[in-house]
Amino acid sequence: MSSGPPVQNEYRRDDSCRIDAIWDVGGAPPRPEEPVEVTDGVHLLLAPNANHWTYEGTNTWIVVGERRAVVIDPGPTDPDHLDRIDEVVRGAGARVETILLSHHHGDHSQAAHAVAERWQAPIRPRIQHGIIPDGTRIDLGRRTEIRTLTTPGHTSDGVSFSLGDRRVMLTGDTVLARFNPYISHPDGTIADMLGSMARIAGLVDDGWILLPGHGPAVREPTTYLRARIADRQRRIDQVAGLLADGVAREQVADHVYAKVDDQRRPAARASVEAILHYLDTRALGKREKGSTV
Predict the structure, then answer these.
(1) Are 53 and 107 in contact (CB under 8 A)?
(2) How far is CA 63 from the centre of its chain?
(3) Quick one: average pLDDT of 99-116?
(4) How confident is the model at residue 237 (pLDDT cuts 50, 70, 90)?
(5) What average pLDDT does the segment 275-291 reach?
(6) What secondary structure letter does DSSP report for 221?
(7) What 3-state DSSP class applies to 37?
């Protein structure tokens, strides 16, 4: 494992890798604990932790090369889930070389130490809120190389993982199908999220597939990301309009997310706080720029 230069558009390839078994929007999810090989050497294991935060559960990804494997977002410390991870790795004739985390939230990272102990493998990053260097390469052999992209926004330590030969990218909670993920403000920021979404859109094309940390896959990701970025901008404009109309800051979330249930309201409020911070920062920048003219 070595650090390399930032990921460039060299990931673009003319040959497309066939997706064998994919969970698509509108389709039924795989059963928890029944692994699915979505493309050569890339296995999805849906964790048994479905709830109002994780939706159908956390997507644990196991990437296998030449007798070496990486576990990405091992999820909860459920004994059966840990056993299924082991079965996938051993069934491929491999051993776990390292555990990678897309970000620090417990629904993705809780089992990291348990997997590490079982396989005597390191965890990347090694500390909460640690950052895997941008452009790090993990070579698993058999034309299986993972390269990291720092993609903050949902959290400050967000990382995505690209497999260029397979034209797939594992995006954690930076990009989800069906809707935009919430911003875990103050740790995550709108500015970072917009930058990460634009970065991914610029590194892939519509022949790629994004494999998120929750829910189904994202097909035609460039087109999809442009639409989701526009959605975020509309939400920013909506909040700015409410403030201009005299709505108190503490009441904005109730206006924007009037129909959100109580379980999801904390996430809604965090996302609105992120937008308010974004607008405050933008206004401060404009004032500072004006003062220097």
Answers:
(1) yes
(2) 16
(3) 97
(4) very high
(5) 86
(6) H
(7) strand
Mean pLDDT of 80-92: 97
Nearest to 72 by CA among 88, 52, 56: 88
Rounded CA-CA distance 134/95 in Å is 25
Confidence grade of residue 19 (pLDDT, cut at 50, 70, 90): low
List C-alpha distances in Å: 145 to 33, 200, 207. 26, 18, 19
Average pLDDT of the chain is 91
Farthest-apart Cα atoms in the chain, separation: 66
- Report the C-alpha gap between 159 and 181 in whole angstroms: 15
d(CA 240, CA 247): 10
d(CA 34, CA 254): 40
Q: Cis omega (within 30 of 0) on the bond before 186?
A: yes
Dist. CA 184–CA 193, nearest whole Å:
11
- The arrangement of strands across the sheet holding 218-219 comes to 137-139, 145-150, 159-163, 168-172, 209-212, 218-219
How far is residue 132 from each of residues 31, 78, 164, measured CA to CA in Å? 31, 26, 18
Structure tokens at 5: 């230069």
CB 146 within 8 A of CB 162: yes
Can you tell me the distance from the alpha carbon of 122 to that of 238, in angstroms, rounded to the nearest whole number?
Answer: 45
DSSP assignment letter at 173: T
pTM, rounded to two decimals: 0.90
Name the helix (H) or strand (E) containing 84: helix 79-91
Rounded Cα gap, residues 220 and 73, in angstroms:
24
Is the pLDDT at 38 greater than 60? The verdict is: yes
